[in-house]
Design goal:
alpha+beta; NADH Oxidase; binds flavin mononucleotide; 6 helices
Length: 179
């Protein structure tokens, strides 16, 4: 599969089959995460793989966005470990006073994992529509570890299909500026 075919074949899955994710597929997804670039190569990502009934139940009590995925990866970052440009002034005075690249790093890692999962026939859902405090309350993450996004992973249920948003992409003329 070439890259654009892979990118096109990914869609957000919100209904999963009970079939578990094979260990070798999970290993491949995690290797894709490991290979991801991060700012100054700090690698602040910490990936919590939830597969047990107990862990998944705890997550589902904190957010409905885990749906019925048999495996969920909570992509966290050790925020203090991420690269921070001390000379950056543009973000100060906004909600990003403590700006560093932890969220970018976790996002790149998550994107690698999402596409690696797609390549091996799995469905995924990238989730950020949760309350961070609820996730922090649900799990005993070590100090300084902050959940950045969540990736639901599993085989799509036979009746699952892409939402209408999947086909809805702006033309490049609206998102690309050539100077
Ligand atoms: C940063 C980010 C956050 C998202 N958060 C959620 C979410 O909380 N819940 C959800 O159902 N989908 C979420 N999505 C999925 C998007 O809604 C979805 O990717 C978009 O509508 C395009 O549809 P497609 O993925 O099927 O192509 C998120 C996607 C991204 C990239």
């Amino acid at each position: 599969m070439d890259f654009l075919e892979l990118a096109q074949s990914r869609w957000s899955v919100r209904n999963y089959d009970a079939r578990p994710v094979e260990q070798e597929k999970l290993d491949r997804i995690l290797e894709a995460a490991r290979l991801a670039p991060t700012g100054a190569n700090r690698q602040p990502q910490r990936l919590y793989v939830l597969r047990s009934e107990e862990a998944l139940a705890r997550l589902r009590a904190a957010t409905r966005m885990a749906f019925n995925a048999p495996l969920v990866i909570v992509a966290c970052a050790k925020v203090d470990e991420a690269w921070h440009n001390e000379r950056e002034t543009v973000m100060r005075g906004t909600t990003c006073d403590t700006y560093n690249v932890a969220e970018m790093d976790a996002s790149i890692v998550c994107d690698h994992m999402q596409l690696a999962a797609t390549e091996v026939g799995l469905g995924t859902l990238w989730v950020r529509g949760y309350d961070t405090q609820s996730i922090l309350d649900a799990f005993e993450f070590p100090e300084g570890i902050v959940p950045m996004c969540i990736l639901d992973v599993g085989y799509p249920a036979p009746e699952a299909k892409p939402s209408r948003l999947h086909e809805d992409r702006k033309p490049l003329s609206q998102t690309v500026v050539e100077w």
